[in-house]
Design goal:
It is a single chain. The chain has about 300 residues and is of the alpha/beta class. The chain has an eleven-stranded parallel beta sheet, with no helix packed on it. The longest helix has 14 residues. It is elongated. It holds the Pfam family LRR_6. It comes from Octopus sinensis. This is Leucine-rich repeat-containing protein 74A-like.
């Protein structure tokens, strides 16, 4: 509580890594209800659980100026999401929520989709490192398709798989607000890329897309590249941590050379380009302002062991 008292006069209160319990959260909630100048509240990595989160959501229900709330790593689950949904019905100031690394599962996604759609004020939400699976794929697609307020969505480190990719593609075709989207570490695979090529191809809002480490090979990249070639808005794409070889690189270079492509940064840092591909990239960079992070090609004679 000493740290809380020290920070209580600040506009941004940082109380992360303090082991705050539900009982302590209750004690803190009483003075916070009457404070109107706090705009950011960081309670990351504590021991709130659903019980403690309830007290925090009650603060926001009564009305204040808090715009950003970080509840990551607090063992939050279904009951906490129910309380959050009730809070969002009343709150008009909160626009950023971090719920990463909790115990949120497919049941929670149903609550989140409805709550976020009805709210209309949340523009940034982090749902990474939770327990969402392919069973909530349709709901994820609906969240993206129907919500016209969220500009930043991080749902990385879950288990959405190819079904998730199919629903995400459906959502991207109709979404009108999303600018940053992270689906890294979701085991999308090549079949997922086949679905996503359509969504990427027609989406006209997304600026940054992270698909890193998704068990994608060159076959998947070749399909995804078809969508990239027709997208005129995407500026940053992360594909590192996948299994892309030379034929996949060729497909990417064709997409980058398309007059429609707006990519400015492509990260495939674990992928090697051969000398011919490096030459093609050089020609593309003469026409476009683009940076590609990749692994330079090294021949056997150029490689030196030790000194």
């Amino acid at each position: 509580m000493t740290t809380f008292i020290t920070n209580i006069h600040k506009t941004d209160i940082n109380l992360e890594h303090l082991g705050i319990t539900p009982k302590e959260a209750h004690a803190m909630s009483i003075p916070l209800r009457n404070i109107e100048y706090v705009e950011e509240l960081n309670l990351s990595d504590n021991r709130l659980s659903d019980e403690g989160a309830t007290f925090i959501f009650e603060i926001l229900t009564f009305g204040n100026r808090i715009k950003s709330l970080n509840l990551s790593s607090n063992n939050l689950g279904f009951q906490a999401m129910q309380k959050m949904a009730e809070m969002l019905e009343e709150n008009v100031n909160l626009n950023t929520i971090n719920l990463s690394n909790n115990l949120l599962d497919d049941r929670c996604m149903k609550i989140l989709v409805t709550a976020l759609q009805d709210s209309g004020y949340i523009i940034m939400i982090n749902l990474s490192h939770n327990h969402f699976t392919e069973n909530c794929a349709e709901l994820v697609g609906t969240l993206i398709e129907k919500n016209s307020f969220i500009t930043s969505l991080d749902i990385s480190w879950n288990m959405l798989g190819k079904k998730g990719a199919k629903s995400i593609s459906r959502g991207l075709q109709k979404n009108s607000s999303l600018e940053y989207f992270n689906i890294a570490f979701n085991n999308i695979g090549n079949e997922g890329c086949n679905h996503l090529k359509t969504g990427i191809g027609v989406n006209n809002t997304l600026k940054i897309f992270d698909m890193s480490t998704n068990n994608i090979t060159s076959d998947g990249i070749k399909m995804l590249a078809k969508g990239l070639a027709t997208n005129s808005q995407l500026e940053v794409l992360h594909l590192q941590g996948n299994f892309v070889h030379y034929e996949g690189v060729d497909a990417i270079l064709v997409a980058l050379n398309s007059p429609t492509s707006a990519l400015k940064l492509l990260n495939i840092q674990n992928v090697s380009f051969n000398k011919e591909q490096e030459a093609k990239l050089k020609k593309i960079k003469e026409k476009k302002d683009i940076e590609i992070i990749f692994h330079p090609w090294v021949s056997g004679k150029d490689f030196k062991f030790g000194k």
